[in-house]
Hints:
This protein is mostly helical. Among the domains are: about 1-280, no CATH class; about 540-575 and about 590-665, Endonuclease, Chain A, CATH 3.40.960. It has 31 helices and four strands.
Amino acid sequence: xxxxxxxxxxxxxxxxxxxxxxxxxxxxQVMTSVRDASSPDQPLSHIWSTRQSQTLLAGNLVSPxxxxxxxxxxxxxxxxxxxxxxxxxxxxxxxxxxxxxxxSEQTLKRIPFYNKLEGCGSPTDVLDxxxxxxxxxxxxxxxxxxxxxTTKKMSEEQLRYxxxxxxxxxxxxxxxxxxxxxxxxxxxxxxxxxxxxMVKLGVPQRSLVVQVFLRTCQxxxxxxxxxxxxxxxxxxxxxDSSPNVNALKEGMRLIVDARLPSIKNVMALQxxxxxxxxxxxxxLKKKLERKALSMTDQxxxxxxxxxxxxxxxxxxxSKPLLDICSxxxxxxxxxxxxxxxxxxxxxxxELLYRDLDLLTTISDNIxxxxxxxxxxxxxxxxxxxEQLAFCPTxxxxxxxxxxxxxxxxxxxxxxxxxxxxYSFLNYDLQDHRQQFLDNLSQALDSYLSKMSAPAxxxxxxxxxxxxxxxxxxxxxxxxxxILEQLSPTIPKLLRSQERMFQTxxxxxRLDRPPLPRPLTVxxxxxxxxxxxNRSVHPRLSRxxxxxxxxxxxxxxxxxxxxxxxxxxxxxxTKPLPVxxxxxxxxxxxxxxxxxQRIAVICVPQSAFCYGTSHPRGLLAVKIRHLKILGxxxxxxTEQELESVSEEERVAVLRxxxxxxxxxxxxxxxxx
Length: 671
């Protein structure tokens, strides 16, 4: 019995001794840190305050390359931090062997902290929890990450309120103080996660605590694994340029360059590619491209998907690599989830990369599996296809059926996206066109009272491009109360609104829609006509003059502006061929009736839907209005002018302007 009592006394003495050795220094370090970070008269809030952080950092920022390579902190205000970093970790046990009971008890003591942390629903809940415990370095990192995690699903208003409470909470300063004190002893993952959480929570980037973490990352960067580097890269993406941020970015590029030859798997390579960022030197991007091309035989389907999005992250266009990835995706399109397909399309848009087989395959696959996609998902696909200037015929045909059957379930955002996609891509549903547009118009009527003035203008503008003129939206747009709200101060936005109003005005005057009462666009919102500064393409000008020869076949006017809005590169007036019995004897036809006006328009390839000769919305309405005004539009692409010889250009123009001379060989004038 006495032996048992003696052993129990020894155990309790050991526990007390361990607790004392673990807790007592931590309290002393906090006091020292407070004394170093600010004078006794200054509040702790200065640790993260922008004004104070700028004062503390003024004149102390050394060259970022020196920070990275030397791995030291040279400012006097941070010398104490370096000395403290050399001390044993606060969150670790003493190096001496400890009794098993002590370790198990300490582990059990930590469990309630994490259980309570999981139950915290806001940043202030976490801060309240820190008053009950003195967190270790790991727990500090977990607290910061959980605080950020609780804000992710908050509404904008709730987030603003919670962040204000967080910054005003007295424990927030103490938590940042402890984080700054323990930064040098944190594990690499905890260090990078803590920095990311602070940046996401809005801690000022120039504050002392953030700068300490940035400099500590510089010291430890050579020991970072791929995950830590990836977390750090995500953090730096959300930070403004500064000496320490730039130093870390440069350091990551040096690490990528150094580790590149040893990379053996695709996932590691893609992590390195994501780290370099858009402003990396082109030489480094080329090295990564060569490495990726040498490993294409290892590419899986997910690798191919991520490679395209990573190239968008890098801001690097590599057609060989993009083509390989596109082919892989095209061959395995079935079963790819929405997020990944959409991610690929968005990346293609950012890179200005379009592969006809890839886009067509994605469109056809979505159309054939329409039932598994929600309306929001399909609308997102339509929107990104429109941004790529690609007309997904199968998808637009399939979705039109769903939209006609359930137009009343479309949200306002979905409705506006659908109108924009169908109008800008100039898609004609033919037999179902009128029903489709009528149903969308009825759905739009139900939202008019809730829509902002710019949204009403965009909706009416899209309907006008489609040649559809419902009375209710037009009348609502032209109300004085709506027009008064359309007075932007940004010149670019103002010019955009004026162009939309000018198009609506032309449609009302030229298309002459049957409306309950006449409507006109007030001159005050039309602005001044855009000055015609664009000159006629010199090659087109020479080819037109050569095609007309001596002028016997017609007369040419160059750079003609029609209706003070539409610019035509040339208008050719030629006599109509006289046919037997074309006019009664003794009657003379007027000059307009006896001649034909041909409007020659030079257009970029971007004016057509990608991979086709189908004109997009703006060009389509221009062609429609020119025909109403009695012109015969003839389109010539810039690519045609650049890619053929002068003789071939003249021959092409003569075939299109004088088809009667060519017989069966004549080409269509417009799509």
